[in-house]
Design goal:
The chain has 338 residues and is α/β, with parallel strands linked by helices. The protein is built from 15 helices and nine strands. The protein has helices at residues 5-10, 31-37, 42-47, 49-63, 76-80, 113-125, 139-148, 156-164, 166-190, 207-213, 215-222, 240-246, 259-266, 285-299, 319-337; strands at 67-69, 85-88, 92-95, 131-137, 194-199, 229-233, 250-252, 271-276, 305-309.
């Protein structure tokens, strides 16, 4: 049997229709997930292979999307490195005290055995035509949580460390890259078909700072596996060339840049993922259709497009809308190829 549709698209091979999946498709937008969380806290779900696999598969069963993305927190490998992380509702990851010294971190021999077992379950239950997308937070984003101690908009402490103590910064990024490379290799060994590196906050950096302080470490992680990779950052329209230079068979675009303009900037040597504004899904169906068709028209004539949102599914999104959206993209892109 041929490889999953998403894998073939990521390799820029001709495909019969545009593949569809949604970042954060597994989670708070689904009533079945909320029901599960009434009985179990987040870390229990994430660290119990059967429950993690169940949550990972829930959106595939409901929406018939072309990929299951593994259910894991961006800080999962940091926890394995000995960091005490609290997931605070309405805030995000909180690290107290913050971590600046790389010597406080240890790289475990096995980073996330429970997640690897969950991936094995998912790959065994998932249709072979659908892909398993492994997930890893970007090293800058995770370092940002470690150094700041919580989510930040300006990353003052991070930038002070980069500029005033560059050796300490590079030592921290070096150990994170080593652990994250091991983490993504574990996911691929367990059955992940694709790896996405999700650097939520890289858009806070200038292109020069990204090249000096982040790009080499993201490149190490992306080069650690031999499956297709997706490199995504939010608010990073000014960094597209730098993201592409760091690596990734596919570059994810958020909604702040038109898909064709972003693709022109990074070039046709890589694929593109995106990039419908997730907030559009809170509006009327006619607007969703128009916005979706605009994305598809901007991708027309190029191989390597993966349809996704420009960030994660918002918790208030009606799950039925996601299913209708997947169906719309499939129908229109099949028609366009006939």
């Amino acid at each position: 049997m041929s490889e999953p549709l998403l894998v073939r698209a990521a390799r820029r091979e001709p495909v019969e229709r545009t593949p569809v999946w949604f970042m954060r498709q597994a989670g708070r937008s689904l009533p079945e997930y909320r029901e599960l969380r009434e009985r179990h806290d987040f870390w229990t779900v994430a660290r119990t292979p059967e429950l993690c696999a169940e949550v990972t598969l829930q959106p595939v069963a409901r929406h018939d999307v072309d990929a299951a993305v593994v259910f894991a927190d961006i800080m999962t490998p940091a926890v394995a490195m000995g960091v005490d992380v609290a997931l605070v509702e309405g805030v995000g990851p909180v690290v107290d005290p913050p971590v600046v010294d790389a010597s406080r971190l240890r790289v475990p021999d096995v980073v996330a055995p429970e997640l690897a077992e969950a991936i094995e379950i998912v790959r065994g239950e998932l249709d072979e035509a659908k892909a398993v997308v492994g997930f890893c937070g970007g090293p800058f984003t995770v370092a940002g949580y470690l150094v700041e101690g919580k989510p930040s908009r300006d990353f003052t402490n991070v930038k002070r460390l980069m500029y005033a103590e560059p050796d300490a910064w590079h030592a921290l990024m070096d150990v994170l890259a080593e652990c994250f490379a091991r983490y993504v290799r574990e996911q691929v060994a367990a059955g992940a078909d694709v790896i996405q590196l999700f650097d939520s906050w890289a858009g806070a950096l200038s292109p020069a700072d990204y090249r000096e302080f982040v790009g080499p470490y993201s490149a190490r992680i992306l080069a650690a596996v031999d499956v297709p990779t997706i490199h995504f950052a939010t608010g990073a329209s000014a960094l597209l060339s730098e993201l592409a230079a760091a690596g990734g068979d596919v570059i994810g675009l958020d909604w702040r840049i038109e898909l064709d303009r972003g693709w022109d900037e990074i070039g046709d040597e890589v694929g593109v993922q995106g990039n419908l504004d997730p907030a559009v899904l809170l509006g009327p169906w006619d607007r969703i259709v128009d916005a979706t068709l605009d994305v598809l028209e901007r991708a027309r004539g190029r191989t390597g497009h993966i349809f996704n949102l420009g960030h994660g599914v918002l918790p208030r999104t009606d799950p039925d809308v996601l299913g209708r959206l997947r169906e719309l993209v499939h129908e229109r892109t099949v028609e366009a190829r006939v």
